[in-house]
Amino acid sequence: MANIDLVDTNLANLNIIDEEEDLLLVLGEDTAVEQLYKLCLVGRVLTDSIVNFPALKNTLADLWHPLRGVTITEIEDKRILFKFYSEIDLNLVLHGLPWFFNRHLIIFHKLVEGEDPNSVPLWHTVFWVQVHNLPIGYTLKETTRQIGDFVGKFEEYDSSLVTRGVSKFMRVRVIINVRLPLKRKKRIGIGQNRFIYVLFQYERLSFFCFICGRLGHGENYCEVKLRMGNQHIEFGWDLTLRATPRRGGQVVSKWIREESNTDKWQDMEIDGERSVRKAGGEATNNNEEKEEVGPWGRSTR
Ligand SMILES: [Zn+2]
């Protein structure tokens, strides 16, 4: 009798194992995860300084004024999670990149399913870059793509050639790796024996280092400077890299004729910002508001 009981128990155990192994389909979880990530951005302010989170929250919400609202929460390692409730609101924010808080760049990344907001790499940002000095006729799409891929990673270009005063320039939207120095110029071959330099200006460029050309810190906190100690340091970058704000964000029509006297541009107010010609010499980020400079005020070295 004892043996029969044992057999019964074994069979019962086998049944339990079988039941345990039977696949139970769980529905709905993926949809929930997808919902969680669908309208989320993860971001961080590119600075080692302490960020006033409540101020950042209010500033960004006021800037974006999303119609359906936004939830902004601090997560691990100074990262911030932005949850939107409408695709339109989210796209407006993405379209308006780059964003800044207290002149520091905020790096954003649109979360996709499976990504961990606490560890997804946050090193890339988008900039509109103006390409100056390109001869007319060389603003072809392929040239634009090559230049964009040199500055960073080409995303798109503005097909209208922008005219300001006597200068013309082209605009490319590029993804930039913030760990690399900002590109200043590129030598371009024209035909067999001629070459020129095209010059880059970054729209809405804010705080960056004039020693190493990277975003996120000033000269006083530069690794390169720390390593060089008391040696003389060349400032390889300056404010000529910063594009002057376009008036009202409008592109001036190519059919408009402007006066050729560039001097009248030297000291004028644009978008509420004072644009003053810089007479050369070393400039630092410490007084950068006073040293706003446009393409007409390029300092020569
Ligand atoms: Zn630096």
Walk me through this protein's architecture:
The chain is α+β, with helices and mostly antiparallel strands and 301 residues long. It has 2 domains: 34-110, Alpha-Beta Plaits; 124-248 and 257-297, no CATH class. 23% of the residues lie in helices and 27% in strands. The protein has helices at 2-21, 29-38, 53-64, 87-95, 141-151, 223-228, and strands spanning 40-45, 70-74, 80-84, 99-101, 104-110, 124-132, 153-164, 167-177, 185-190, 194-202, 267-270, 273-276. The strands form 3 sheets. The chain has a 5-stranded antiparallel beta sheet. A hairpin with a 2-residue loop joins strand 4 (99-101) and strand 5. It is elongated and about 95 Å long. 23% of the residues are buried. Mean pLDDT is 77; it is low at 248-301. Bound molecules: zinc ion.
Residue share in helix? 10-25%
Structural class: alpha+beta
- Give a short account of the largest sheet: 5 strands, antiparallel
Count of individual domains: 2
Instruction: Give the overall silhouette.
Output: elongated
Low-confidence stretches: 248-301
**Ligand roster:** zinc ion
Q: How many angstroms separate the termini?
A: 103 Å
Sequence of strands across the biggest β-sheet: 2-3-1-5-4
**N-to-C series of helices and strands:** HHEHEEHEEEHEEEEHEE
Beta content: 25-35%
Rg, please? 27 Å
What is the number of helices?
Answer: 6
- Mean pLDDT comes to 77
Number of E strands: 12
Sequence-ordered SSE layout with sheet pairings:
Layout: H1 2-21, H2 29-38, E1 40-45, H3 53-64, E2 70-74, E3 80-84, H4 87-95, E4 99-101, E5 104-110, E6 124-132, H5 141-151, E7 153-164, E8 167-177, E9 185-190, E10 194-202, H6 223-228, E11 267-270, E12 273-276
Antiparallel strand pairs: 1-3, 1-5, 2-3, 4-5, 6-8, 6-10, 7-8, 9-10, 11-12
The chain binds zinc ion.
Residues 209, 211-212, 214, 217, 222, 224 line the site of zinc ion.
Protein name: CCHC-type domain-containing protein
InterPro entries: At4g02000-like, DUF4283, Zn_knuckle_CX2CX4HX4C
Domain Zinc knuckle CX2CX4HX4C: 177-223
